[in-house]
Amino acid sequence: MIWPDIRRVGLAAVGAATVALLVGCSQFAELQPVAGDEITSVKIATNDVLVDKQVDVLVWPVCSFADEAYTCQGTEVGGAAITSSVPVQEPLLLKVSVDGKVLFQGPLKPVITEAARTP
Amino acid sequence: MSGLDRRSFLKVSAALSASLGLSYNMVGSALAAPLVSGTDQLSTLQETIRQRTVGNLQYRTLVTGSGEPYLPRLDILKREPGAQRAKNRRSIGYLGHLSDIHMIDAQTPARVEPLLAQSVATWNGSARPQDTLTANVLSAMVTAVNTLQYSPVTGVPVSAVVNTGDSADMYSSLELQWYIDVLDGKPVQPNSGTPKVYDGMQSWLDTEVIWHPEEPAGDAYGDFGFPRVPGLLDAAVSQQVESQGLSAPWYTVYGNHDSLYFGFFPVDSAMRSLALGSSKAYEWPALVHNYLSGWAQQQNPLARFGHMINTNFGASSGFRDVASDQERLLITQMSFMQAHFHTEQFPGPIGHGFTQDNLDTGKTYWAADASPRIRLLGLDTCNSVIGADGAVPQDQFDWLRGELTNARQQNKFAIVLSHHNSLTLENDARPAIGPSQPLVHTEEFISMLNEFPNMVAWLNGHTHVNTITAHPRSDGTGGFWELTAASCIDFPQQQQMVEIVDNRDGTISLFTTVVDHASSAEWTEGDFSQTGLASLSRQLASNDFTENPLMRRGSVADRNTELLLPAPFDTATISDAELEVTHAAAKARVLRRESQVSR
User: How far is A31 from B380, CA to CA, in rounded Å?
Assistant: First the structure.
């Protein structure tokens, strides 16, 4: 039947038009999901690597976003710098270093998945 | 008891037995018993819950794993802690922290499940496989908090439980009362519409965006490997959920889901009518048109165009008939507070932080003492215009500064409670018309909190991720800890216990203990018991591919921790006797709840 398909398209147009009309409102900028999931994932994966590699941490990494990349910085008990970085791309690729020595380099998501599963 | 002399001990015992209706002998003998740390109670210190590595397609069941001991965090102290602190420490206070309970009436026409088909990324949370099981989870969480009602570190009893918002999922009065009743220890029937029969999206097999437990083949969840669980939906809505109720007084603040519809939108009359009506949307265009255009119309006259299109295209065809229920009222900002006065004297307190002054003035924030040395400051960081994220209105910011000043002068530890956390205080939406007050965002808020050494912890939620964040002062003299609890709805369905401990060496420690709800890690097929449904909920949540579930556990540094700080004042000014009286009152409340259960 053709008519239901046309009506479905019409319904989709209504929805899209309504959402689009909201673009004109000053509040539209806030019509977005809860913030923070991605940067939190970067921090968690970085921490998971540090735990897995048994790094003695004084200051756990603090993460920020700039220039299309997440970067995290912390301090090892001995004073060495802990750094991690994740450029925004798919898949997210994590690199964690302590005192300039790379501890881990690879996809971020499996780090979190493995930490949540039985060994 | 070592700090109280005999006369004081007898006086305290008599007062507590009288005020709580307990026998003098029961109170006296319990208070005379030495404190024993609750490390033998099952907790995440002994056992955690993990996913299996293999399963059906991508679906994984759960299993127990090894426990996680406390991890000392030195981010603020920035030096090795004293080795003798474990021998010398004493408890200032022990609290439970709940957040993001998301109690759900899964059958209300006011739910917005079809939005998942429009965009999973934008509308995740509009439907979850475990939507019908939230009362079971909260009841199991209450049991778990009671299991840890004596501190694993010092053995002191829990003196208060705080709830940092998003208690009701869809701005529903039913959801609101169910959550209050479960925390109070009253049974609830998590059903609306037709008695004992589930009637909603999860039973309509022609909608593909949701898990259908009767027959998942053909929906996205079935493709993922979700199981077939016939009978689940009717079992979930037909069984009464019993609850132990909390031992300690509990306090609450607003979350965005308690303040806006779906945590996003202001409510208009069309939404209120839909909630009470007998039509439920199953296609997102119809839902968007009927729910959102009313809001848009208030803001933008062009949206009237939507009504014209509706007339011509018949957008209301995306709805299906369901049983109406006049109990499905949507709440208001005021009725949220009022509902917290329809509660029990024990665990109390009546109002749960809100007072008559809040009802009289409309102020949505409050101050209360969890104990003589711990002041709770409950904020409303929700944006009342639009959006999930929040900010601190200037009037609350100014009020908070005054309250922190008072607490500092009184040598009280201050704990700030809010729903939103430091990642989510950037919402700057203002009313399109009329005056509005300035909104304070993360950087300025943290800077102000750090002016007060007695401000030791900021407890919040919102992101459903276990997160612990250090906020050191720039001059290196201390700071405070931000503790973000996960949720009762998304995996890992964990909450936390928090204890302030005086190490008597010029430092204090905050111990955080993550709490799994009291149900089996492994769900047994066909187990529709109350705890069985809670167990199934956690398993389903761990596989909810719309929610990035495994990340929400946080890392080891976000779960069981010892968070060190310089002591904010000379803690020797707090006598042992004073603390013992505080703990005695908390212990008597625990005894009262236990005596009620045993009757």
Answer: 20
